[in-house]
Predict the structure.
Amino acid sequence: VSLNNLGDVLRAQGNQEEALRSFSQSLEIAQRLAAQEPDNAQWQHDVSMSFVRLGDMLRDQGNLEEALRYFSQSLGIRQRLAAREPDNAQWQTDLVVPQTRVASILMHGASTERTEAARLLSQARDTLLRLAASSRLTHEQQHQWLPDIESMLRVLTQEEPEEA
C-alpha cells in the first residue's frame, strides 16, 4: 500500500516512469503475500488495487489493451471478494471501480464490447442504488459515481455502434 501511495505522489508530480515502477513493485509484493495466504481478503484487495493503478497509468499513456488486461484482473479479484461477502459495503463499492474502468475502454469498441460495457455499468449502477437505499454510500459515491455511471450508460444507448 505504501508503494501505491508513493506511486500516486510520483504520478501527481509528473514522474510517470517512477510511478509505474512503484506501482509494479507494489503489485509484486502484494502478489507474493496473496500467494502465501490466498484466503486473506485484504491481500487480495491490495493486489486488485495495484492492478487498477497500473491500468490507470497504462490507459493514460494510451496503452488501452494492456490497461484493459490489468482492469480485468482487478475486476476478477473484486468480484470474488464481493461474492464472498455480499453484505460488505466496502467490497461491493470496490467492485464498481474496475467495472467502470473496464467499461470505459469497452464502450468505444465494437458492438459486443459495447454490450459488455453496458452490462458492467448496469451492474455498477444497481450496486450503488442498492447501497444508497440502505444509506451505505459516501457522498462522493452517491453524488459523483452514480451520475457518472448513468451518464456513461446514456452515451452507450445514444451512440451508434462502430463497425467491427
Observations:
- The two ends are 40 Å apart (CA to CA).
- The helical segments are 2-12, 16-36, 41-60, 64-84, 89-106, 111-133, 139-158.
- Residues 51 and 70 are 5 Å apart (CA to CA).
